[in-house]
């Protein structure tokens, strides 16, 4: 009887150790996911600054593009999200286009839109307002 009680205690200890390791792994995985998202944001900001006049707009459904052209869609998105800048005549879109699909073709995802502004100051003003809108 003492042997079975000892074996049960040992089994409970092993189960407790495995549960602790599982929780540590889950915490480590969530931290990795958070860091990956932060790195993606940093890469996007660096990419945007390197391309100078370009901004990438993500997750825009392609159905909206079929109704109006991409350039008009970008101007519409800017007017909706930044009403104060929509009135500004200094911000003009020079060119806008969809990016090619680079990700897994079996996984459905919308393609990004790359917008090129005529002046760098227009891009900077939009980025400044977007950052202010993002942070409370």
Short structural description:
By secondary structure, the chain is mainly alpha-helical. It is 63% helix and 11% strand.
Comma- or semicolon-separated keywords:
136 residues, mainly alpha, Alpha-Beta Plaits, three-stranded antiparallel beta sheet, 5 helices, 11% strand, elongated, Transposase_22, L1_RRM_dom
Choose one word for the global shape.
elongated
Main β-sheet description = 3 strands, antiparallel
**Backbone CA Rg:** 25 Å
* Helix amount: 55-70%
What pattern of helices and strands is seen along the backbone? HEHHHEEH
Uncertain stretches of 5 or more adjacent residues = none
CATH superfamily of the largest domain: L1 transposable element, RRM domain
Order of strands, widest sheet: 1-3-2
In the residues, how many domains can be counted? Answer: 2
Instruction: Count all strands and give the number.
Output: 3
Name the CATH architecture of the largest domain: 2-Layer Sandwich
* Structural category: mainly alpha
Report the mean per-residue pLDDT as an integer: 79
Oligomer: single chain
Q: Can you count the helices?
A: 5
Write down the CATH topology of the largest domain: Alpha-Beta Plaits
CATH level 1 class label of the largest domain:
Alpha Beta
**How large is the share of residues in beta strands?**
5-15%
Region (Disordered): 1-33
Biased composition (Basic and acidic residues): 7-33
Protein name: L1 transposable element RRM domain-containing protein
InterPro entries: L1_RRM_dom (IPR043636), Transposase_22 (IPR004244)
């Amino acid at each position: 009887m003492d042997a079975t009680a000892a074996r049960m205690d040992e089994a409970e200890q092993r189960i407790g150790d495995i549960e602790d390791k599982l929780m540590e792994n889950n915490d480590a995985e969530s931290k990795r996911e958070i860091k990956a998202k932060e790195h993606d944001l940093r890469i996007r900001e660096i990419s945007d600054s390197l391309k100078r006049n370009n901004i990438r707009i993500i997750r825009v459904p392609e159905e909206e593009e079929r109704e109006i052209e991409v350039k008009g869609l970008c101007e519409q998105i800017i007017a909706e999200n930044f009403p104060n800048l929509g009135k500004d005549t200094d911000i003009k879109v020079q060119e806008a286009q969809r990016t090619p699909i680079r990700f897994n073709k079996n996984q459905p995802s919308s393609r990004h839109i790359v917008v090129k502004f005529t002046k760098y100051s227009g891009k900077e003003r939009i980025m400044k307002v977007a950052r202010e809108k993002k942070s409370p």
